[in-house]
Write a structure and sequence with these properties.
- It is built from eleven helices and no strands.
- It is mainly α and 246 residues long.
- It folds into two domains: 114 residues, no CATH class; 129 residues, no CATH class.
- The longest helix has 34 residues.
Length: 246
Amino acid sequence: TSYLAKVKTWTQMQGIGVMLLFPLVPKDKQHILVWFLGVLVALPLPLVAYKWITKKKLFRGGLIMAGSVLPIFLFALHGDEDLTLRWIMFAIVGLTWISGIDYIVVGWKQLRGRGDFGMADGVRLIGALAMPALLFAVLVETAAPPWPVFTILAFELGVGGLDNLLSHHKKATKALAWGGRVLSVCSLLGLALLIPEYATLFSAVAAAVSVVGVSAEFWIGRDYFMDKRIRDKALREAAAAEPKNG
């Protein structure tokens, strides 16, 4: 995992946490939130200085922490809650996209170098690009209820973790099965956009396809996240593959 991916994760967790604080803190006590953000900006800076003075090392994480919270602090200090929340969301989404592109660029080079990019990778890439765009479009452009969209998001994000685990064990789902589920969901979401009067029906069916398909994935791959012997074997193999220091 690249350092950019780690920064993206920090930003997502911290940013969404701060976003949730704004509606929770009463309007007459927003100054407490401003002080809290100010502390978040200032707190890492002594650590940055300490590491530089004592070890001549730049504490990048501290600078990134302070720098990412600083605009939020300034917007909150200005008193514009709407602008503050918009900035946080744009920053999270923007950094997520940049990190995602970085994953694709780095991963593509590695796959091409090994000649290991197959049809199964292709359908995953197509689905990863098409499904979020279609889900967002259905949520915004149609009268379909939000629950099918959120259901699909939750299940597809969950199966992504399982897919990583199965890929590690070289047991990843083949292109036909994975593509059948993902492309079926995308097709149904596309129909919801094309025939908006039936958007609720198509999005609900898409959610059902996702739930059934993802549940099948977890059932088929259950040994790899439930069987301790397989997990221990994977850990031993990973440890053996690591280069020895010295």
